[in-house]
Design a protein that fits this description.
It is elongated and about 80 Å long. With 94 residues, it is mainly alpha-helical. The protein has one domain (15-93). It is built from three helices and no strands. Helix content is 80%, strand content 0%. The termini are far apart. Helix 1 (15-33) packs antiparallel against helix 2 (35-55) and helix 2 (35-55) runs antiparallel to helix 3.
Length: 94
């Protein structure tokens, strides 16, 4: 009799890659609310992504973390620039 439930196991864990992807998504959201936090989370996501690509089999998730981290950093920088322009415009009007 064969076992109807079969499981496959991989020797490589997906922890770093998954963490990179999650932190990358958080960096995008945080970039709009608190840009400094978005930059920090983006850097963490990129570092975790590169570590995940080197050590783990889940290279797609690691690449997703790298991309979302970079997008989070770009959005944070754009947000900082927009806020700085808006503040400068308000100061000039006074």
């Amino acid at each position: 009799m064969t076992n109807p439930i079969t499981t496959t196991t991989t020797s490589a864990s997906k922890g770093l890659s998954l963490s990179s992807l999650i932190v990358g998504i958080v960096s995008i959201v945080a970039s709009l609310l608190i840009p400094i936090l978005g930059i920090a989370a983006g850097v963490v996501a990129i570092v975790l992504g590169f570590l995940g690509r080197r050590r783990e089999a889940a290279k797609g998730m690691a690449l997703g973390g790298i991309i979302t981290g970079a997008v989070g950093i770009v959005i944070a920088i754009v947000t900082i620039i927009i806020v700085a322009i808006a503040v400068a415009g308000q100061l000039q009007q006074q």
